[in-house]
Automatic annotation (TrEMBL):
GST N-terminal domain ranges (all copies): 1-79
GO molecular-function terms, A-Z: transferase activity
Name used for this protein in its record: Glutathione S-transferase
InterPro entries listed in its UniProt record: Glutathione-S-Trfase_C-like, Glutathione-S-Trfase_C_sf, Glutathione_S-Trfase, Glutathione_S-Trfase_N, GST_C, Thioredoxin-like_sf
Organism: Caballeronia novacaledonica
Keyword Membrane included in the entry's annotation: no
Taxonomic classification: Bacteria, Pseudomonadati, Pseudomonadota, Betaproteobacteria, Burkholderiales
Keywords: Transferase
Family named by the database record: Belongs to the GST superfamily.
Annotated Pfam families: GST_C, GST_N
Residues annotated as domain GST C-terminal: 85-216
Length: 216
């Protein structure tokens, strides 16, 4: 299994997932700063020229949510997903789509300062997104209650960026949730790899508004 990766990008989500699962994989470096994502070989894996992407035998999958869902289904024994006929599968799928379809666009909208239309825009607005997370976290420490799953990897890693970029106040239920997520051993391992590779490749690893974790 090959993860197309570059440090300090959204490929970190897939790296975190793989480190939670502890399954064998290799990193395939795609230097998005040098334009390697536009190489025709990589475009065959992801025509969008974006990371993360995954190759597993003849399977090719890109888009963070799809990559994590593929991995969760591929390794059900790791219990980072929800089986097809489990009633929680509905909520699992909902949150799997939520980060890319609602949280990220609402964050981008806030960055631009544009006045959106909360009814017609699919992501509503950032306040509604925050409320949806807070509501889910009333049921337990994770989005699906007591079970930590792939959806927490997507949500917590993105909320962390929202805090750093000062788009969401780092406080309350959401702050506690992100802290809890980042305290996991799987996160620690992935984070150490990401840091190590960033240093090896001499990337700017400074974290701050000007250099958030996804510093592309
Ligand atoms: N919707 C995509 C977004 C991926 C994305 O934007 N990745 C950035 C790195 S954080 C990238 O590869 N950018 C290279 C480019 O756009 O050329 C996902 O969630 O996988």
């Amino acid at each position: 299994m090959k993860l197309f990766y570059w440090p300090k990008t959204r490929a970190f989500r897939a790296l975190w997932m793989l480190e939670e699962m502890r399954v064998p994989y290799q990193l395939e470096f795609v230097n998005i700063r040098a334009g390697a994502q536009n190489d025709s070989n990589f475009c065959r894996v992801n025509p969008m020229s974006k990371l993360p992407a995954l190759e597993d035998g003849s399977v090719r999958v890109a888009e963070s949510g799809a990559v994590l869902l593929y991995l969760a289904d591929r390794y059900p024994e790791t219990e980072l997903g929800v089986p097809l006929h489990d009633p929680s599968r509905g909520r699992f799928l909902q949150w799997m789509f939520f980060t890319g379809s609602c949280l990220e666009p609402a964050m981008a909208e806030r960055v631009t300062g544009a006045q959106g239309n909360t009814v017609s825009f699919g992501w509503g607005d950032l306040a509604r997104v925050e409320h949806a997370f807070e509501n889910a976290l009333e049921e337990g420490p994770w989005l699906l209650g007591d079970q930590f799953t792939a959806v927490d990897i997507l949500a917590a890693s993105t909320l962390q960026i929202a805090f750093i970029a000062k788009l969401i106040e780092p406080q309350g239920v959401l702050f506690d949730y992100v802290e809890r997520s980042l305290a996991r051993e799987g996160y620690e391992r992935a984070s150490a790899i990401d840091r190590r590779e960033a240093e090896r490749l001499a990337l700017n690893t400074q974290i701050g508004v000007a250099h958030p974790p996804h510093d592309d």
